[in-house]
Specification:
Helices cover 79% and strands 1% of the residues. The chain is built from 19 helices and two strands. It starts with a helix and ends with a helix. By secondary structure, it is mainly alpha-helical. It has one domain: MFS general substrate transporter like domains (Growth Hormone, Chain: A), CATH 1.20.1250.20. Strand 1 and strand 2 form a beta hairpin. GO terms for molecular function: transmembrane transporter activity. Pfam families: MFS_1 (PF07690). Keywords: Membrane, Transmembrane, Transmembrane helix, Transport.
């Protein structure tokens, strides 16, 4: 297991760099949005609805694109498909790196929405499929947990950097690291194309003659548009096993709750307790450190004796408790205390992905992970439509009282 993970070090570095570039702007984006749309206020209905609309549109795009990207990666390799979602996000980040005035914000908003429709979640989806190509079934839950731990470590480092950088410098650093991630991935990451050889998944392929030979001997790959999964293909995949369909239902409702928290929690904390960029960063930093320790060190120890199914149940239960604490927060310290629950909450996503991975064959890992990502994206369409009006009404009634 350790030797296999060392062989995947370039994948982990790629995920870390791309995650760092994505996460570093999160604490600042609420203040940037408020400054561009409602300067000088702590409560802004327009910002809530604009963010919710963007989240819904991105969810619609990713729901359509995730199965396609995952399926194409089964045909053409994970590295080839990683290039697109790692390159496109550089453009909107570069816009805010130049200026955060209202006009620049609207340009960022439009391009961010368009690029995220293709890119949101793609890197994680392809990285999971890459791991599934090279890790046996019994070890995937631990490997997926370690991958989530790498993402959490990127989150911690990015949030810590955001805590001490100015807003302008934050977006400049994000742009640079995004470009560095693409260059590193293209130079060092080896291609991985799944194949069935005596019932086993083919390991990482070296770039060169093996990949070229496969392209020459597989003329069916030239008919790329015949490989685009239809709605019927996705439904068939969801019905392929009861466990897979049940995992899809769990992924939907978990993402619905998570999407609701994302679309409302920061605006709620800003209006209720006057949180700013630094306090958002502190909150995220605590959660990220706890999550990193849990996913890298605790979860691998628990997978074998407990199993990924029970870890999923425990993680979902504690996620519910965390949402309850946020909803009844009576003081600014309550959200900070609730972040301690992240040590268990983070068990859920890698456990769910591990269960999904075990239900499909070696040539369908990208399609399966893409399908679950698409289901999660459907939830992200619905979440802001439900939670944005609820958040706005809640804050309005509180301020009116």
């Amino acid at each position: 297991m350790e030797k296999k993970l060392k062989g995947l070090s370039h994948l982990f570095v790629t995920v870390f760099l791309s995650g760092f570039a994505s996460f570093i702007v999160v604490p600042a984006i609420t203040d940037v949005t408020m400054f561009a749309l409602c300067p000088g206020t702590d409560e802004c209905s327009l910002a809530i609805y604009v963010s919710g609309f963007q989240q819904a549109v991105i969810g619609l795009g990713t729901a359509l694109m995730m199965p396609l990207i995952g399926n194409l990666s089964d045909q053409y390799g994970r590295k080839a498909l990683l290039t697109l979602p790692m390159t496109l996000p550089i453009i909107p980040l570069a816009i805010l790196a130049c200026s955060r005035t209202t006009n620049y914000f609207y340009a960022y908003y439009a391009l961010r929405t368009l690029t995220a429709m293709v890119c949101e979640g793609s890197i994680n989806c392809l990285a999971l499929a890459y791991l599934a190509d090279n890790i046996s079934d019994g070890q995937r839950a631990s490997a997926f947990g370690i991958l989530s731990g790498i993402s959490s470590a990127a989150f911690v480092c990015a949030t810590l950097a955001a805590r001490f950088l100015s807003t302008g410098s934050t977006f400049q650093v994000a742009t640079f690291v995004s470009m560095l991630a693409v260059v590193y991935m293209r130079i060092f990451l080896e291609e991985s194309i799944p194949d069935q050889v005596d019932g086993m998944t083919q390991p990482i392929l070296k770039e060169g003659e093996d990949v070229i030979q496969k392209d020459v001997n597989a003329p069916e790959r030239t008919t790329v548009f015949k490989k685009i999964p239809s709605l019927g293909d996705i439904i068939c995949l969801l019905k392929s096993s009861p466990s897979f369909s049940q995992a899809a239902v769990v992924a939907f409702f978990n993402s619905l709750a998570e999407g609701g928290m994302i679309s409302s929690s920061m605006y709620y904390l800003k209006a209720r307790f006057h949180f700013n960029k630094n306090q958002f960063a502190d909150l995220m930093l605590i959660a990220g450190i706890v999550a990193t320790i849990s996913q890298l060190f605790i979860m691998p120890l628990l997978v074998s004796p407990i199993g990924d199914g029970r870890l999923l149940s425990i993680g979902l239960l504690v996620t519910f408790v965390n949402a309850i604490l946020y909803s009844i927060a009576w003081s600014a310290w309550v959200p900070y205390a609730a972040t301690a629950l992240s040590i268990v909450m983070v068990f859920a996503p890698p456990s769910l992905r591990s269960i999904v991975s075990k239900q499909t064959g070696a040539r369908e890992q990208g399609k399966a992970q893409g399908c679950i990502s698409g289901v999660s994206s459907l939830a992200n369409i619905i979440a802001p439509l439900i939670f944005s009006p609820l958040t706005d009404d809640s804050l309005r009634s509180e301020f009116d009282d």
